[in-house]
Design a protein that fits this description.
The protein is an all-beta fold. It has a single domain, classed as Nucleic acid-binding proteins (OB fold (Dihydrolipoamide Acetyltransferase, E2P), Beta Barrel), CATH 2.40.50.140. The chain contains no helices and 7 strands. The mean pLDDT is 77.
Length: 85
């Protein structure tokens, strides 16, 4: 039995372990991460597996993922900090 094909996608919104993924054709669908760990951030290119009307994030195609976060209680003149994930 052949394994199901993986599809390319781009995460355009993240809600905990659920992601809104845009396909190369411009369609959008909800995908879930495997396990308890979130596997992506907005802007990540991923490979996903179709599971009915939604999908499952199988893996990220990015070599490195970065996101920005404000330093808590820091003076407002400080820039956002880049954190390696």
């Amino acid at each position: 039995m052949d394994p199901a094909p993986l599809h390319n996608g781009l995460i355009v919104a993240a809600y905990g372990r659920h992601f809104l993924v845009e396909t190369p054709e411009g369609n959008r669908l909800i995908c879930h991460s495997r396990g308890k760990r979130s596997q992506g951030l907005v802007g990540d290119r991923i490979l996903w597996l179709a599971t009915g009307s939604d999908g499952t994030v199988e893996r990220s195609r990015n070599e490195k993922t970065y996101f920005t976060a404000r330093i808590p209680f820091a003076p407002s003149r400080l820039p956002q900090t880049w954190i390696k994930y």
